[in-house]
Amino acid sequence: MTREILSSAPAKVILCGEHAVVYGEPALVTAINLKAYCRLTETKTGKIEIVSKNLGKSMSYTLDSREEPSKNELYPILRSLLHILDKFDKRVSARIEISSEIPVSAGLGSSAAVPVACSAALYYLINGKLDREAIMEAAREAEKIIHGRPSGIDTMIATFGGVYAYRKFEEPIKIDVPKDFPKILVIDTGVKRSTGALVERVRKLKERYPKVIDPVIHAIGRLTIEAIYAIFDRDYERLGELLTLNHRLLSAIGVSHEQLDLIVKTAVENGALGAKLTGAGGGGCAIAICYEEHVEHVINALKAQGFKCFSVNVSEDGVTIEE
Ligand code: MEV
Questions:
Q1: Which domain holds residue 40?
Q2: To 10 degrees, the CA torsion angle through 35, 159, 45, 43?
Q3: How far is the centre of ligand 1, averaged over its atoms, from the C-alpha of 281 (Å)?
């Protein structure tokens, strides 16, 4: 009988600490209720076939061929899958169909959620269970190709779900978000950008002006710790203020965009507690946090500026086998 597995992994928003997290500072991240899905069908073709509905792209790689696979947009996913096959020393052929609710190149972790979901499906096919650490490790093979020097935060949250304080090389700390936590809005600039290029931009700036940029990176890390205390204290005005301050510090290291600045200004002027870019910046998405009673007003103000804007929920779901 042909075996079929459906897996999923969530998108994320970084509440604070992006970029600084690459240099060992803490960041605060939450999984949200948008998912990437992978439908894996076991085949007898001797190939790994990958089809992305959203990208309208496909690739096929013959296992045991000595040829280098073509390095298209789906190649990073293939690398994650080969990592799993190598781990088990197996040659399982399969067709992988990807579909996703997560906007691409927008800072919401699509390029981590997809390899996490795909790695999980293959891992489950071979081993009949999910080993989250092993899945995260396989997905990082893809992330390294896409982003160059990732902190690992995106694959961690796509694998485990929930809300975490994350610091490179340390055990992530789960944060229990109070029930009265404000609403999180995601606002899309529609400007596509590359995380790898933005991480590289910060690295170069940091290399040129270490005495200027290092303290800003450290301040972002410090701010993340303050933000976590604000959540513990349920002081959401303070949290909002810190998020907006985080945006300004990110702007100082060169990763904002005029559309992101406009979103932050519009959101805050119309009643949001705070707003900032999320993810690598340079375009992509921003987030705003606001009390329920202000949501409609903030959304209308942002829509009047032409932005796509939607409310998301914190999600406890990490990588999941759906059926
Ligand atoms: C990307 O979602 C977050 C960055 O900090 C890069 C990383 O942590 O790998 C910009």
A1: 4-173
A2: -70
A3: 9
